[in-house]
Amino acid sequence: MKLVHLSDLHLGKRVNEFSMLEDQKHILWEILRIIGQEKPEGVIIAGDVYDKAVPPAEAVALLDEFLVRLAGMRTEVFIISGNHDSAERIAFGSRLIRESGVHLSPVFSGEIEPCTLTDEYGEVQIRMLPFIKPADVRHAFPEEEIGDYTDAVRTVIRHMNPDPSVRNVLVAHQFVTGAERSDSEDVSVGGMDNVDASVFELFDYVALGHIHGPQRIGRETVRYCGTPLKYSFSERNHVKSVTVVTLSEKGRTEIRTVPLIPLHDMREIRGTYEELTLRKNWEGTATDDYLHVILTDENDVPDAMARLRVIYPNIMKVDYDNQRTRTASLTGLAEETERKSEMELFEEFYAGQNGQPLSGEQRSFAEALLEKLKEERA
Predict the structure, then answer these.
(1) Nearest 5°: phi and psi at 168?
(2) Comparing 40-54, 294-308, 324-338, 360-374, which segment has the lowest mean pLDDT?
(3) Helix, strand, coil proportions of the chain in percent (round to 5)?
(4) Please, which residues have CB within 8 angstroms of residue 220's CB and are 6 or more apart in sequence?
(5) What's the pTM value of the predicted model, to 2 decimals?
(6) I need a labelling partner for 73 at 20 to 30 A (CA). Which of 148, 239, 269, 279 fits?
């Protein structure tokens, strides 16, 4: 059983005020080409189909065309809603279009029925879990103790009751502890939305969405496929790809990636204004890539972005790295630190060291201890 794993299309997204719609159309057509070559039995899109809960009409039209072409390839499609999506909008029309082989996750109610595919090794049961919060699970299972995101996902999986004798696949959109983040993701401060990877032990493959860099979490079969495009300069070194998963007999899963070639790459270039405008330094390069330009001139260059766009039309950002900016950065950090209370500084230190915020009891203890130290110092 071959599956193609995608996620985080973020259709309709703008990056630094640049519309990514043409880039997204290009990469979706590239994905269709790869799917045509691979001929999988199923295609998974693990959430954040759109960039906003109310997407622009052009983004909806692009997804519509993509799904029509996928349906024409006679492959089953499995789509869940992510934290950027409206679960209700993603679920709209799901019972009607299921006949075309496109399965959309319903609004979470606690019941998640498997979609079953069959090959020479037997059944593969695919369960689609849209993005959930603990409050969603408490509402569905009021009798359960739900303290955090791990409890929430563990409870939902327990109620799924997956059959251990068949191959089980879970599609989910959550932040799993240990994943490497990018600047373009929405993740709760202090790691409050962390889900422990141990909750997925019953599944032969876990197709994750939410994190933009392709990576495995713990074992090879718990995987983020990453975004098909770079959506921030923190992703500039990512190699974007499509993940291809082959499930043979129970317990044997093979995973590989197929690289994606974007319409425009996202890069960072650095140097003085003179260096960046010398023909020998830019001729023969992809000057229409999306660029973050870092100028090292000690003095500001008047209208630097407008002048540089004569050569590099898709500059997204221009910054300076020189003595003045480095001094200002240190000064600003010092001033910001001075404005914070001792308790705020301790909370930041604790969260940074432990990957989670202080509990109410810990905060009360720390406040009392700080107050005692102040009294002793006085």
Answers:
(1) -120, 135
(2) 324-338
(3) 35, 25, 40
(4) 253, 255
(5) 0.84
(6) 239
Element at 282 (helix H, strand E): helix 279-282
What's the confidence (pLDDT) of residue 189?
46
Q: What end-to-end distance do the CA atoms of the chain give, in Å?
A: 71
Nearest by Cα to 298 from 326, 322, 275: 322
- Long-range contacts of residues 217-225, Cβ cutoff 8 Å, at least 24 apart: 217/176, 217/177, 217/178, 217/179, 218/178, 220/253, 220/255, 221/253, 221/255, 222/176, 222/197, 223/5, 223/255, 224/7, 224/176, 224/179, 225/5, 225/6, 225/7, 225/46
CA distance 238 to 345: 33
Q: In whole angstroms, what is the distance from residue 141 CA to residue 42 CA?
A: 31
At a CB cut-off of 8 Å and minimum separation 6, what does 180 contact?
Answer: 211, 213, 215
C-alpha count within 13 angstroms, C-beta hemisphere, residue 210: 29
* DSSP class of 133: -
Please say whether the beta carbons of 63 and 69 come within 8 A.
no
Distance CA 35, CA 39 (A): 6
Residue labelled with tokens 């209208």: 303
230 neighbors 238 (Cβ within 8 angstroms) = yes
Beta-sheet pairing, 18-19 with 205-209: unpaired
Q: Say what percent of the chain tops pLDDT 70.
A: 92
Helix (H, G, I), strand (E, B) or coil at 319: strand
pLDDT at 124 over 50: yes
